[in-house]
Amino acid sequence: QPADTPARPDPSLDLIVIGVSTGGPHALQSVFPALPAELPVPVTVAQHMPPQFTRSLADRLNDRSALQVQEAEDGMTPAPGRAIVAAGGRHLVFEQRGARRVVRTPEQPADSSHCPSVDVMFESASDVYGGNVLALVMTGMGKDGLQGVRQIQEAGGTVFAQDEASCVVYGMPRAVVEAGLADAVLPLDELAHAVGKAVGTPARP
């Protein structure tokens, strides 16, 4: 299985998407402070969490990060230096409006096992951004994100998975790794560095 960060930056990357569940708030609070304010692409996060709690999570990440972190609102524009956290009870998807891309916050599909769903966000990211997507699959139970990762990889995108030793629950990343869909498998404390390397902007110390 892969263990190292791909040796590039990739100038074609337009979006970073993060899927996470059990253990996610702690893991995100480890990664976000190391992401630089000048990160050249937007970030979106689907964290399995009920309504009300996602706003508090976004506020905590905003306080600890050089990025501007906000809970998703319908019509918000993903932008460099901004991170958008999916609202509990709603999915986060992307829409092309002319030359502009925006996020939408639908409650559908209602039959998804999670809302927000990592699969729904990842698949929408691939639909709108094509192969110019870097996906991070982090600690969490189950396999939400696996189908979305498959679509991102088929479109030419890149996938990093958190390693077993640093996960609270090695479920979501395990599903991706065992399916052979991870370009790199990394400890929690190396994820921000890997992201910075991929986009050509060093992580913060």
Search tags:
globular, two-stranded antiparallel ribbon, 9 strands, 6 helices, 7-stranded parallel sheet, alpha/beta, 205 residues, 29% helix
How would you summarize what this structure contains?
With about 200 residues, this protein is α/β, with parallel strands linked by helices.
How many strand elements? 9
**Mean pLDDT across every amino acid position:** 93
Q: Which outline best applies?
A: globular
Number of helices: 6
**In percent terms, what proportion of residues is strand?**
15-25%
What structural class should be given to the helix and strand makeup? Answer: alpha/beta
Separation of the first and last Cα atoms: 28 Å
Series of H and E elements: EHEHEEEEHEHEHEH
Largest sheet: 7 strands, parallel
Task: Give, in spatial order, the strands making up the sheet with the most strands.
Answer: 3-4-2-1-7-8-9
Rg calculated over all Cα atoms: 15 Å
Low-confidence stretches: none
Helix content: 25-40%
Task: Kindly describe this structure.
The protein contains six helices and nine strands. It has 205 residues and is an alpha/beta fold. The strands form two sheets. A seven-stranded parallel β-sheet has the order 3-4-2-1-7-8-9, sandwiched between helices. Strands 5-6 form a two-stranded antiparallel ribbon. Helix 3 (118-129) runs parallel beside helix 4. The protein is globular and about 35 Å long.
